[in-house]
Design goal:
heterodimer; A: about 260 residues; alpha/beta; 10 helices; B: about 450 residues; alpha+beta; globular; binds flavin-adenine dinucleotide
Chain lengths: ~260, ~450
């Protein structure tokens, strides 16, 4: 294995985005958004879907795109993923988009520790594993971006999904520290807290007046990336909503059904 | 999330006369599509593309709708042969945006770019070049169909030919098309060279359409459906071919029609004036000019939701094809009926067709096809019934993609290959899992092949 860290990225080489959890609508939209100027490594479990997606990006944008099997809780495999990504990138600069997640119903989690564990492992530990494994490579290249999809659910524990929320809260804190570490190496790390998006996750809830389309979401993220923001709420009204929700005193909040 | 993939929706056909309350899923990938089909619990299911069929072909009241819009991947494209493999929710608009700049045009397209490829297969759509290029299915190498058994089956003229013939033009009743392979056509640039001629009456228009025109594979006539007497059938003939020289790219800016227009806007005098203006716009000696493919192929797409023009009550579109020999007389008769009914209509469209389609229920046949918008007002039923009768008498047929009114008997008489279609359904969907309001109305599954 070549020591990739020894090769400085070539500023003329195309950017490379590693998309983790690439089968979601949001990841699809983001991939299509960056593909005109980047090559993509699509990581996830549904290989048939990722194969179609890689083909789609190649046809639409004439970029390089490949599908890679990735399981968030198969931590040991993540070292191999870093190598694979480095080989794919060559002297192109690596960027990460972390979009995988798992959100079972709270009522099911309540009765099943295995489900609680899976939720925490996928949303939190999986991200910690990936981010820490990629860290040396990112530091060595001295630039690039990392986008981590958190959740407004991580801003306050709620009756309706506190296990998921707690994992995302942990992730938020982890990414804060990670951001500080990467900042020293010139790598930009952005936490994105999505509000309601019009995706498979929210479909069955019926028509949501504020739900944002995935491609608009992706375009907004790309704009925030250019501005090198640290933490963003998308769509932006969620900053206000969450500010209110965070400030409700616990003795009141615990009685609500929010 | 482990919640249900279903949500209550209310869907309408493009003409907004037919409506349906259904449960809808909008799968984002194939595995979710299969899961949704499995969770339909024995209720009838139907694919819904972009909802550009005018009537009830894509509706399934009280059943399950599978929205294909997010199954929108271009899986592969071979730039040597022009062979595209795509998911069903890809729209013609995407093909124009992605592949036309590289010199590839979709060989057959309907008059709106917002239709999906899955919808184009299921109605076996035709374009302004039907005589030269046939129907959409003439350019398919194969399709893949998710059948009632939950299996994905590949079908082509060679492989599972019965499923292919039943799915092409089969208005969604054989299953969900999950992928298709289409051959695109090389073009020198982004434009067509369009010749316009102003013609004084129906005879001239018919002659213009039916005179061989090998150098201009595209031909269509816009007819002033309100002109009567001596002027009956007067129109503007458009003949077109790929232009050698590309035009500078223009920004596509679609305007929307945000509200339903009140009825008086479409009163007789307004429409009469519009049609007159449209006809006179073309100089007496004709003109020739390069036009972007987009503007030539999709003239109505510049106004989003133009269907609101007809107000809340909506409108019907009547489209029929009548066989070659009967065509001129039959079209005259249809125009006279429309004229007598005094229905204000924008331009009617007349096209020549050159061949039968490959599907059991394909619409096309050699002859002339007439399409006209008819506002939904009292008396529209009688008018549509009369038009159906006249079409039938001429040995023609009504286009299912536009229909919401045809009678079961009329349908049976017009579609002689129904028995083959029913035999294929018996084999591929014996329990009648796939169903639509149109299939119920026309009793498509009833009777016939045992
Ligand atoms: C402005 C305008 C111009 C038009 N011009 C023409 C024209 O020139 N020529 C012409 O032929 N037609 C024309 N049409 C009609 C239109 O092309 C057809 O109705 C087309 O099928 C619409 O595609 P859709 O994606 O909107 O499908 P929908 O209307 O949503 O569905 C149509 C049928 O396809 C089925 N279907 C959709 N997706 C799938 C799938 N994945 N698998 C199985 N079945 C599926 C549905 O069940 C339904 O039966 C025009 C329509 C408009 C609005």
């Amino acid at each position: 294995m070549t020591d990739v860290a020894a090769l400085p990225p070539d500023p003329l080489a195309r950017e490379v985005w590693v998309i983790l959890g690439a089968s979601s609508a949001v990841a699809r939209a983001f991939s299509r958004g960056v593909a005109p100027d980047a090559d993509l490594l699509l990581c996830g479990r549904d290989m048939d879907d990722l194969g179609r997606m890689a083909g789609d990006l190649r046809v639409r944008h004439d970029c390089r795109a490949e599908a890679v099997n990735f399981n968030a809780t198969d931590y040991d495999s993540h070292c191999g993923l870093v190598e694979r990504a480095a080989a794919f990138a060559g002297r192109g600069r690596l960027n990460l988009f972390i979009a995988f997640g798992d959100m079972p119903e709270q009522t099911e989690i309540d009765n099943d520790f295995a489900l609680a564990r899976r939720t925490v492992e996928t949303n939190y530990l999986g991200a910690v594993s990936v981010l820490s494994r990629f860290a040396p490579r990112l530091e060595a290249q001295g630039g690039g971006s990392v986008v981590v999809l958190g959740s407004v659910a991580g801003d306050r524990g709620r009756l309706k999904n506190y296990v998921y929320g707690s994992a995302k809260a942990g992730l938020h804190a982890y990414v804060q520290g990670y951001r500080a570490r990467m900042h020293r190496a010139g790598v930009h790390v952005m936490t994105v807290k999505p509000g309601f998006l019009d995706t498979a996750m929210t479909w069955s809830l019926g028509k949501l007046p504020m739900a944002m389309q995935p491609d608009a979401f992706a375009a907004t993220i790309m704009k925030h990336l250019k501005a090198k923001r640290d933490v963003v709420y998308v769509p932006w009204p969620w900053l206000g909503i969450m500010t209110i929700i965070r400030t409700v005193p616990e003795r009141v909040f615990k009685r609500t059904n929010i | 999330m482990s919640t249900s993939p279903w949500r209550d929706v209310s869907l309408t056909g493009w003409g907004r006369t037919a409506r349906a309350d259904s449960k809808a899923a909008r799968p984002e990938r194939q595995s979710a599509l299969r899961a949704a089909l499995e969770s339909s619990n024995g209720k009838p299911v139907l694919a819904f593309g972009a909802g550009r069929s005018y009537g009830d072909a894509a509706l399934n009241s009280g059943g399950y709708a599978l929205l294909t819009e997010r199954l929108d991947r271009l899986i592969s494209f071979d730039s040597a042969t022009g062979e595209l493999v795509a998911e069903p929710g890809v729209t013609f608009e995407t093909l124009m945006r992605v592949l036309l700049p590289r010199g590839w045009l979709v060989p057959v397209t309907p008059g709106t770019a917002f239709a999906t490829l899955g919808g184009a297969v299921a109605n076996d759509v035709h374009g302004k070049n039907q005589e030269a290029a046939g129907n959409f299915s003439d350019h398919l190498q194969w399709i893949e169909v998710l059948t009632a058994k939950g299996e994905v089956v590949r079908a082509s003229a060679q492989e599972n030919a019965d499923l292919f013939a039943a799915t092409v033009g089969g208005i969604g009743l054989t299953g969900i098309i999950t992928a298709l392979s289409l051959r695109l056509q090389r073009v020198p640039g982004n434009a067509a060279m369009v010749k316009l001629r102003r013609l004084p009456d129906l005879d001239a228009v018919v002659e213009g359409l039916t005179t061989p025109h090998p150098d201009t594979p595209y031909s269509v006539a816009w007819i002033d459906a309100l002109a009567g007497g001596r002027n009956l059938g007067r129109g503007v003939l458009e003949l077109a071919a790929p232009a050698e020289e590309p035009l500078p790219e223009q920004a596509v800016k679609a305007r929307g029609l945000p509200v339903d227009l009140p009825g008086f806007v479409l009163s007789g005098p307004t429409v009469r004036a519009f049609n007159e203006m449209y006809w006179r716009r073309v100089p007496a000696g004709g003109t020739e000019r390069p036009t972007h493919w987009r503007s030539f192929l999709y003239p109505l797409d510049a106004i989003h939701q133009w269907n609101r023009m007809y107000g809340k009550a909506g409108f019907h579109q009547f489209q029929c094809v009548v066989p070659q020999d009967e065509a001129p007389a039959a079209v005259r008769g249809l125009l006279e009926t429309l004229g007598k009914a005094g229905r204000a209509s924008f331009l009617a469209v007349l096209k020549a067709m050159g061949r039968e389609g490959r599907g059991d229920l394909s619409f096309s046949m050699p002859g002339l096809t007439l399409a006209v918008d008819i506002p939904n007002r009292p008396g529209v039923d009688e008018l549509l019934t009369r038009l159906e009768r006249q079409t039938l008498d001429a040995g023609g047929r009504v286009y299912l993609a536009k229909d919401s009114h045809l009678s079961p008997d009329g349908f049976r008489a017009m579609y002689p290959r129904l028995a083959g279609f029913q035999a294929a359904l018996k084999k591929w969907d014996p329990d009648g899992k796939f169903m639509s309001d149109m299939a119920r109305r026309l009793k498509i599954r009833e009777g016939g092949a045992a």
